[in-house]
Structures are given as structure tokens and as C-alpha cells.
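Honest question from a wet-lab person: if I give you the sequences of every part of a complex, can you actually get the arrangement of the whole thing, not just the pieces? Trying it with mine:
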Amino acid sequence: MATKGFETRERIVQRALDLIHAGGFSATSMNDIVDATGVKKGNLYFHFSGKEELGLEVIREARRQYNAYLRERITGNTPLEKIESLLEAIVDFHRGRNFSGGCIFGNTALELGGRHREFSALIADVFREWTDMLSGMIDAAQAAGQVRSDIDTRVMARHIVALLEGGVMMSKLSGREDDLGSCVDSVKTMMRC
Amino acid sequence: MATKGFETRERIVQRALDLIHAGGFSATSMNDIVDATGVKKGNLYFHFSGKEELGLEVIREARRQYNAYLRERITGNTPLEKIESLLEAIVDFHRGRNFSGGCIFGNTALELGGRHREFSALIADVFREWTDMLSGMIDAAQAAGQVRSDIDTRVMARHIVALLEGGVMMSKLSGREDDLGSCVDSVKTMMRC
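Yes, you can. This is the full assembly:
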């Protein structure tokens, strides 16, 4: 049974996730989180030793939510249809946010990556997990003769993850779906046999 | 003839560029720039009204420097060789920084894009300029029969810009050349007829 403390902790993480996704890690202060949750500062620090610990939990929670969303959206009868439904789910996710917030993993990767080991390792692991998932799907599509086989599946999977991160960046800048959308369309064409 | 004031201004911009490239815009304070340049705070504010004005000048200067570097590095006898030399120059640039700082334009795009109009417009213009340059090169390579022509040149150019931004992000996270390198290799393969 969820205790009140557990619910408070969950609420802090969710509001911090919203703030960090919209504004970035450095620009979000513990005071902003106090204001957004109504939780007293002492109580906030009872749950999290500081912004770093909270930020890491935010990335873990974002990962759980986003991966659950993706798993739910993968549909289709053939391996290629499954890949295409995944790509469509990613575009839909960002369309639902008007392409404004970008990808919280990519944003944080560029903000803290290389300077902060724990964040770097955690986000690298998120990207590795997506690459693994896509590799498996591409393997199946290659076996079914639906995807070109002159490129290693892992290399192609990594290409797609990087491309989507870059495409989300372009759409965040422009506010236009077309930037991410045309990346998705062209990689579909390039993958085909 | 360069005046002392002009030289001071240039020095501020260059040091601010280094700090923002390494640490990000939000995490770099005007005090950090005072410390790094030895310029007195009053003098810093004589040259720039605030961090925003300085930050925009930093992005403009980074654009000048990076585009000059790229133009200098494009070589080759055929259109495809020119494209490949450009891709190699980009990997070399990041190798020279141990893949640690990422792309200052991409970093700032994700940090401020969507929230700050002037930064968004300026960085979108940098990406548009790269896309234009690549489009022209791909056009020539298509005309020479070196690159597939079933994808619109502008779409392919945008794909490459997004892919490189994503690949630089992955290499920044991992510190490994392989992430960006494999993106470059696979797009070369995918572009071919």
C-alpha cells in the first residue's frame, strides 16, 4: 500500500520531470520544484539529498514512462510494420508536445554529458537499450527480407537512434513536425532492400 | 586597425565561446567570464549588455569559425569525394576535442531552443546553412550518378545534418569515436546508388 511519503516522493519526481523536460536541468532550481509541488523545502530534502539525486531519479522515471509508452505502441504483422509503428509512435509523442520540449534524454545528454559521470552512464544506457530493441527488430526484418542486409543491424539501429535525436532537435528549434518527419521518411526509404 | 577595445571584445567572445562550448550556456556565469578573461566586470558590461547578448555573439563567432574550417577542409575530385571529405572534417573536429564538448550549436539548441526566440532563430539558420551547402553537394553527386536519386536532395541533406548532431551527442556521452563514426559510415553506404 502506498504511504503518504511515497505519494509525495512520486509527485516531486513527476513535477521535476515536467520542469526539467521543459526547461533543462541547470535552469531548474530546487526552489522551482518547491513552488511547483507545494512540498516544503525540508520535506523535499528529506526525500532527495539534492538536485543531482532528484535529477537522476527523474531520468529513471522518464525512462520507465517512455519505454512503457513505446512497448504499448509497437504493432503490426511483419517485422517492418513493427519498426514503422515504433517510428510513428516517436513522432506522435513529440507531436503531442508540439515538438517544444525535445527529448529529455537528449537534452540532458548535451547539457551534462561528458561532465557528469552518473548522468552520462544512465543516459548512455537508455540509448543502448533503444539500440538493442531496434537491433532485434531489424534482425527480424532482415531475416524476412524486408530490410537491406548490407549494413550491420547494430550500426543501422544506432544510426536510427542518432537520427531521431537529431531530428527531434531540429523540430524543437523550428517547432515544425516536418524536420523530424522527413528524417523518419528518409530513413524508411534508406532501410529498404 | 584593431583598437584595444576591439581586441578586448574579441578576447571576451573567444573565452566565452570556450566556456559555453565546454559547460553550456546556463552553467556559464558572467563571473566565470570575468575570471577567465581577467576583464573587469564593468568593462565586460561595457561591451555586452548581458549574458544573452554575449551568448548570441558567441554563437555567431562559432558559426564563422566552424564554417571557415569546413570550407577549408572540403577537397576531392568528384562530388562524392567532396561530401566524404566534409564528413571526415566533422569527425576530425570532434576527435580534436576528444568528443567531449559536443556541438556548440546542438548543445545550445537543446538547452534554449523553443524557449528563446533569438537563439532558436540563429541556430536554426546555422543548420539551414549546412543543409543548403550539403544539398548543393548532393545535387552535384546525383547528377554525376554517384548518389541515389530516389530521395530528394534537401531531405537527404537534412537527414545528414540531424544524424551528425545525434551522432555527436552519442559520442559526447560515451567519449567514443565509434558512435559518430558508425553513423558516418552507414550514411555513406545508404547514400550510394
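Two things worth pointing out. Chain A touches chain B through 48 residues (CB under 8 Å). The mean pLDDT of chain A is 94.
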